[in-house]
Design brief:
It is built from twelve helices and 15 strands. The chain has 396 residues and is α/β, with parallel strands linked by helices. A hairpin with a 2-residue loop joins strand 9 and strand 10.
């Protein structure tokens, strides 16, 4: 008899967003016609920018021409896109070789696939509250997960402790779900820790484009020592609206070595064995993001989401609610009223004001008592959701 991967039995019974979807579906069935203000799952609401659309159309036309047609793409990414991304890093003072950039079908895919680089007996450290897939991907692989709690008192940005032991360290900045952002000094502590202990940092930078404060790092490679201990995983999903188009990229420096093996070379072998590359059409669209006009256009869209954040912050300030995030991140992390549980508060918002958010408990036990709001919703829906949040009684 074929034995399945029994580690799946160790997963939590219900994935966070599936449970939310079930609750919402039940509400809609019982209240047909009621409009819901969906501020939960972080899907974008604005379309792809004109520069990307134009590039996609041109790429489609290329595929209709025998001379310009493209079949299989290089497994690690088209040179034109890898060079464009490396140049983009260079504008921030980070020097990369183009072949240190690996093109992927998205950060979520890459965060799971990248675990192929590490022995199943290695441990993975996750700061909680955390994106649930960090934990689940390691549980599926049978890997030990070290849960490091983050608390309000430290701004949800814990420091590495001397007794911490972990082979793989997940850091997300700006953070999902809390919106907290590592400063250079705080991030340097984790880099120094990883180099001392031969750990590898998986740095999730999916939301770096939302950073406003000039002193905050967009990339871990802006700091000393990161090239010998870090892998950076990025996405165009929130940066450029590619949630339905799917493209991300991963940076693995050539200096990153463990037990005599270069992780960069290992990943080349992995990608050339397990993938056939990302679509030529999608890569052409992605390359347009890194043009001056593409950057201008995507930041115009990002500005809309930042305005959504300001609308929420004003409402929460009016209601006297504690929160973090919003300014340098597309999420707001707020405290539930009067010790209320996060799923209990979810039900209150859904049933009383028809606002759908994300219960903090779904991001780990440290998230209990907190709640996440996404700023990626329709601007008019956001204004109405904020108005309802500011109502007397919602936070009673």
């Amino acid at each position: 008899m074929t034995k399945p991967n029994m580690h799946y039995a160790d997963l939590q019974d219900s994935y966070l967003f599936r449970r939310i979807a079930q609750k919402v579906a039940t509400y809609e069935e019982e209240h047909p016609g009621n409009h819901l203000y969906r501020m939960g799952i972080g899907d974008v609401s604005l379309p792809l920018c004109d520069a990307v659309i134009h590039a996609l159309h041109e790429a489609v036309d290329d595929q209709a021409d025998a001379v310009r047609f493209h079949g299989y793409m290089p497994e690690c990414g088209a040179p034109f896109l890898r060079k464009a991304i490396a140049k983009h890093y260079g504008l921030r003072g980070v020097s990369l070789d183009a072949d240190e950039v690996f093109v992927s079908s998205g950060a979520s895919d890459e965060l799971g696939d990248i675990l192929d680089l590490f022995d199943a007996r290695s441990s993975a450290m996750v700061i909680e509250p955390a994106y649930p897939a960090y934990v689940d991907a390691n549980v599926m692989a049978g890997r030990a997960v070290v849960h490091v709690p983050a608390y309000e008192e430290e701004g949800f940005l814990p420091r590495p402790s001397n007794n911490l032991q972990a082979d793989v360290i997940y850091l997300c900045s700006p953070n999902n779900p809390t919106g907290a952002v590592f400063g250079k000094r705080q991030l340097q502590e984790w880099i120094d820790f990883a180099n001392r202990h031969d750990s590898v940092i998986l740095f999730d930078a999916a939301y770096e484009a939302f950073i406003e404060d000039a002193e905050l790092p967009h990339s871990i490679f802006e700091l000393d020592g990161a090239r010998t201990c870090a892998i950076e995983i990025c996405s165009l999903s929130k940066t450029a609206g590619f949630t339905g188009t799917r493209l991300g990229y991963t940076v693995i420096p050539k200096e990153l070595k463990r037990h005599g093996m270069l992780l960069h070379d290992m990943w080349v072998r992995n990608r050339t064995t397990k993938t056939n590359g990302v679509s030529y059409i999608i890569q052409r669209g992605a390359a347009a993001v890194f043009t001056p006009e593409g950057q201008r256009q995507i930041h115009k869209s990002i500005g809309v989401y930042k305005q959504n954040a300001r609308v929420f912050m004003d409402a929460l300030d009016k209601a006297g609610v504690w929160y973090c995030g919003g300014r340098n991140a597309p999420y707001l992390w707020l405290k539930c009223p009067e010790g209320m549980g996060s799923w209990e508060f979810f039900d209150r918002l859904l049933n009383e004001i028809q606002v759908v958010g994300t219960p903090g408990e779904g991001f780990g036990s440290c998230g209990e008592g907190y709640f996440r709001l996404s700023t990626f919703g329709d601007p008019q829906d956001t204004i109405e959701a904020a108005r309802r949040l500011a109502q007397v009684g919602v936070f009673r």
